[in-house]
Amino acid sequence: MGDEGLFGPRTVTWHLHADPAMWVAGVCSLFLQALHPRAVAAVVQNSRFRDDPLGRLQRTGNFVATTTYGTTAEAEAVASRVRAVHRALRGTDRETGEEFRLDEPEPLMWVHCAEVASFASVVRRAGFPLTIAQLDQYFDEQRRSAALVGLDPATVPGSTRAMAAYFARVRPQLRRTEDSDLIYRFLHLPLSSRWLLPVNLGYLPLGHLAYSVLPGWARRLHGRPAYPPLVVEAGLRAFRAAGLAVPDQLRFRYPGDHVQRALDRLGEAAAPAPTAPTGR
């Protein structure tokens, strides 16, 4: 076996992150992240996502895929670049006018927890089977990802109970803002050119499905209607089923070839499965 990287085929992360429902889960996590005033202000003030929407989403996906399926050196290299960017940038709190660093623990912790909780929840709802023990294992594994962006793993929720306690603690700080409204609109219609209107309209149902799988309390903070529950469940499962119907030889190469390169390195026995391992 070659270098398994930070995770490897015996982890829940390895299999969950290759699931087709991660497409929906990733967008859902961005809706959730937008509810933290400082975290979303940092994005709006420092990112060119409106000018380069596909590039911004691709870079986010590349970070998750590289840290999951890349070699240890590749994961550490991409993380080093992210930490350098966060270290150099500043944001301004729109309510207090206070300047803050993007590498402060509070917004980093929020982005991490919103991301991994969304990944686990959405993929599980779409049909990826996860026991509570496997969820606990996933959150514990994801402390490695948190360390990559500069967080102390000991302070990061590593179980379902700890994650629930974190969200209960942080919820009073979350709210709808002008910045969160901007992100809501962007994630529904990300391409601004009128020539790309058909692409936007084709994407719109997926974008709203990703919004609709937010926790109820998060949707109430956004203050926007969601698809009915039956539509959400049917849409999630249909999306996952369609993705799993794509042959692995093709699915593991797109949108990036991170999974296929991991299989080239480790062998076909390491292929992600539509279920998670039962033990560490």
UniProtKB/TrEMBL annotation:
Pfam families linked to this entry: MPAB_Lcp_cat (PF09995)
InterPro entries: MPAB/Lcp_cat_dom
Domain ER-bound oxygenase mpaB/mpaB'/Rubber oxygenase catalytic: 14-240
Top-level taxon in the UniProt lineage: Bacteria
GO molecular function, one term: oxidoreductase activity
Official protein name in the record: Uncharacterized protein (DUF2236 family)
